[in-house]
């Protein structure tokens, strides 16, 4: 009888969240019942097409720059991840999650570096409230030529950041804000602009066109160097990519820098 009552409570919660704009997957994540989910973001502008490997085997294949793979189920426990040139298992870069857990989302990012390919790892505990319809946002810095960034998510009708605090402060190269293991930042849906500055500065180096951020969206905003020979890049020449979480594979949204037309 206890099992039946528990199932009834979960079904009722799923129905309530769905009515409020969420979904049963969110309920499973929040309650720690959903199998761990993982996806891959290719953030190397001049990088080759790659396969994404989990525990040495290809999970997703033929991933080009800006591509974001579907979330896929993986097992719990210690998990190694890497990416390799398409059709091979010779890793270009690798890393590991020591304790993959149910209800969490995991992101693996192909990151450019001056000495070769690198990797970024994010463990997202998905601590979203059952009744929340807010959008979730996290930043990641894949720009070796912009080692520390502040990111401002501001309403499109007020882009003056002189008295504003960064939405995501001090995003350092190869790191996320909030950090891996912490929950994302929650914001209301609306029409926004993203502005990037060097950490501690109020002088924009990147300002996007306006865009719509929907309620219940799940966004990873990643800075990437403007394409070219990485060792010859000028400081702060970046683009911003938006990897949108979900069940439909799609390229990351590449925002245009309105400050210089790039």
UniProtKB/TrEMBL annotation:
Matching InterPro entries: DUF4397
Keywords: Lipoprotein, Signal
Signal peptide span: 1-21
Keyword Signal belongs to the record: yes
Domain DUF4397 positions: 37-152
Protein name: Putative lipoprotein
Organism of derivation: Paraburkholderia phymatum (strain DSM 17167 / CIP 108236 / LMG 21445 / STM815) (Burkholderia phymatum)
